[in-house]
Amino acid sequence: MSIKILTDSACDMPAEELEKYDVELMPLYVIEGEKTYLDGIEITPEVLYSKMRRGVHYKTSQIPYADFVKRFTELAEASVPFMYLSFSSGLSGTYQAAMLAKRDVLEKYPDANIEVLDTKAVTGGLGLIVREVAEAAQNGASMEELVKLSCYYAAHIRHVFTVTDLEYLYRGGRLNKGTAIVGNMLKISPLLDVDENGELRQVDKARGEKKLLKKMVEYIEEKGDKLCEQTIYITHADNMPLAESFVKIASKHFKTDNFKIMPLAPIIGTHSGPGTLAVFFFDEVK
């Protein structure tokens, strides 16, 4: 029996790849007033970003411990070995909840084969890690091999983000109000990545779309390895024109057309806002 791969709805992967590798997504929660939605199941990116543009505010919530216990128990009772690849503990308490669930399920089912790993990644970065690990699992890799592979890819994944409306970073406490207002007036967008602790940080900024895309491409060229051999994931929050503009420039620089464009998961887009663009790649390729 191959090892089953689980992740959460902060993971962005093409639907055909989720199906191909039999990856199971556990939903986080998106909250609108008194209503709570299962991320990606009861609310879609298209609906969420449309409503955000009309002024609706959302909050998010991690996967509860009880949800993990329920699913982990079902798999343990069925004697299914599985690995849960969590999105960054630097951005959510989801990983900690999964670890507690693992501990308690193993107390009841000590022979269960369970691993829980913190990828320090998010959205398409998590998706690329999951893709590589799930493919190895289908090819018969052992749990020990999958753990080593997960740690390797988690150490070498790279993220680069930008947002087109700084109001959402201000609401999330990442910018002060004055900086957000001035930045929006002058059309200044930050360039963000994810550090070794899995937390967002600003690495640069640019004024205007052309300069912004140029800096994104330069960042990826500097950090990436063998980009022409990689699959590069791109996610966007209701901003397909910007994603397509990026691909047009990047394909010439990287000498590849192997890009996968997807909507940004609602659980992330609620914090970055409509207009967000994010690109994911590896800084080392075996």
TrEMBL record:
One Pfam family in the UniProt entry: DegV
Transmembrane stretches in the record are: none
Q: Which domain of life is it from?
A: Bacteria
Report which residue ranges the record marks as coiled coil: none
Presence of the UniProt keyword tRNA processing in the record: no
Keyword list (alphabetical) reads: Lipid-binding
- Function noted in UniProt: May bind long-chain fatty acids, such as palmitate, and may play a role in lipid transport or fatty acid metabolism.
- Which NCBIfam families did the record assign? DegV
Please identify the protein, giving its name as recorded.
Answer: DegV family protein
Its source organism is Eubacterium maltosivorans
The beginning of the lineage is:
Bacteria, Bacillati, Bacillota, Clostridia, Eubacteriales
